[in-house]
Amino acid sequence: xxxxxxxxxxxxxxxxxxxxxxxxxxxxxxxxxxxxxxxxxxxxxxxxxxxxxxxxxxxxxxxxxxxxxxxxxxxxxxxxxxxxxxxxxxxxxxx
Length: 95
Fold this sequence. Notes:
By secondary structure, the protein is α+β, with helices and mostly antiparallel strands. Helix content is 69%, strand content 15%. The protein has helices at 21-38, 47-94, and strands spanning 2-8, 11-17.
Protein backbone atom coordinates (compact mmCIF):
# COMPACT_ATOMS: atom_id res chain seq x y z
CA UNK A 1 0.00 0.00 0.00
CA UNK A 2 1.23 3.47 -0.86
CA UNK A 3 1.27 6.38 1.60
CA UNK A 4 0.07 9.80 0.49
CA UNK A 5 0.48 13.20 2.09
CA UNK A 6 -1.61 15.86 0.35
CA UNK A 7 -2.77 19.35 0.96
CA UNK A 8 -6.36 19.60 -0.25
CA UNK A 9 -8.31 22.81 0.15
CA UNK A 10 -5.84 24.02 2.74
CA UNK A 11 -6.00 20.87 4.83
CA UNK A 12 -3.15 18.39 5.22
CA UNK A 13 -4.32 14.82 4.68
CA UNK A 14 -2.33 11.60 5.10
CA UNK A 15 -3.65 8.22 4.05
CA UNK A 16 -2.73 4.88 2.55
CA UNK A 17 -4.24 3.49 -0.62
CA UNK A 18 -3.70 0.80 -3.23
CA UNK A 19 -4.25 3.33 -6.01
CA UNK A 20 -1.51 5.02 -7.97
CA UNK A 21 -0.28 8.59 -7.62
CA UNK A 22 -1.91 9.78 -10.85
CA UNK A 23 -5.35 8.65 -9.72
CA UNK A 24 -4.95 10.36 -6.34
CA UNK A 25 -3.81 13.55 -8.09
CA UNK A 26 -6.80 13.44 -10.48
CA UNK A 27 -9.14 12.97 -7.50
CA UNK A 28 -7.55 15.92 -5.71
CA UNK A 29 -7.96 18.13 -8.77
CA UNK A 30 -11.60 17.05 -9.16
CA UNK A 31 -12.38 17.90 -5.52
CA UNK A 32 -10.63 21.27 -5.75
CA UNK A 33 -12.34 22.13 -9.05
CA UNK A 34 -15.78 21.23 -7.71
CA UNK A 35 -15.15 23.18 -4.52
CA UNK A 36 -14.04 26.25 -6.46
CA UNK A 37 -17.15 26.01 -8.66
CA UNK A 38 -19.32 26.09 -5.52
CA UNK A 39 -17.30 28.74 -3.68
CA UNK A 40 -18.27 32.35 -4.07
CA UNK A 41 -16.45 35.10 -2.16
CA UNK A 42 -18.98 37.05 -0.18
CA UNK A 43 -21.45 34.18 -0.07
CA UNK A 44 -22.29 33.64 3.61
CA UNK A 45 -21.80 29.89 3.73
CA UNK A 46 -19.31 27.97 5.81
CA UNK A 47 -16.55 25.78 4.43
CA UNK A 48 -18.22 22.81 6.11
CA UNK A 49 -21.48 23.41 4.22
CA UNK A 50 -19.61 23.84 0.95
CA UNK A 51 -17.79 20.57 1.57
CA UNK A 52 -21.13 18.90 2.37
CA UNK A 53 -22.55 20.12 -0.96
CA UNK A 54 -19.39 18.91 -2.67
CA UNK A 55 -19.66 15.45 -1.11
CA UNK A 56 -23.36 15.21 -1.99
CA UNK A 57 -22.59 16.15 -5.59
CA UNK A 58 -19.81 13.60 -5.86
CA UNK A 59 -22.00 10.94 -4.21
CA UNK A 60 -24.77 11.70 -6.71
CA UNK A 61 -22.31 11.40 -9.59
CA UNK A 62 -21.06 8.09 -8.19
CA UNK A 63 -24.57 6.67 -7.76
CA UNK A 64 -25.60 7.70 -11.27
CA UNK A 65 -22.43 6.18 -12.69
CA UNK A 66 -23.00 2.97 -10.69
CA UNK A 67 -26.56 2.74 -12.02
CA UNK A 68 -25.35 3.25 -15.60
CA UNK A 69 -22.66 0.61 -15.13
CA UNK A 70 -25.17 -1.88 -13.73
CA UNK A 71 -27.50 -1.23 -16.68
CA UNK A 72 -24.63 -1.69 -19.15
CA UNK A 73 -23.52 -4.90 -17.44
CA UNK A 74 -27.08 -6.25 -17.57
CA UNK A 75 -27.34 -5.35 -21.24
CA UNK A 76 -23.97 -6.96 -21.97
CA UNK A 77 -25.10 -10.11 -20.16
CA UNK A 78 -28.30 -10.24 -22.27
CA UNK A 79 -26.31 -9.70 -25.48
CA UNK A 80 -23.79 -12.37 -24.48
CA UNK A 81 -26.62 -14.81 -23.82
CA UNK A 82 -28.15 -14.04 -27.22
CA UNK A 83 -24.82 -14.44 -29.03
CA UNK A 84 -24.12 -17.72 -27.24
CA UNK A 85 -27.63 -18.89 -28.12
CA UNK A 86 -27.06 -18.06 -31.78
CA UNK A 87 -23.70 -19.85 -31.71
CA UNK A 88 -25.31 -22.93 -30.16
CA UNK A 89 -28.07 -22.87 -32.79
CA UNK A 90 -25.52 -22.54 -35.60
CA UNK A 91 -23.42 -25.38 -34.18
CA UNK A 92 -26.47 -27.61 -33.84
CA UNK A 93 -27.59 -26.90 -37.41
CA UNK A 94 -24.13 -27.75 -38.77
CA UNK A 95 -24.15 -31.18 -37.17
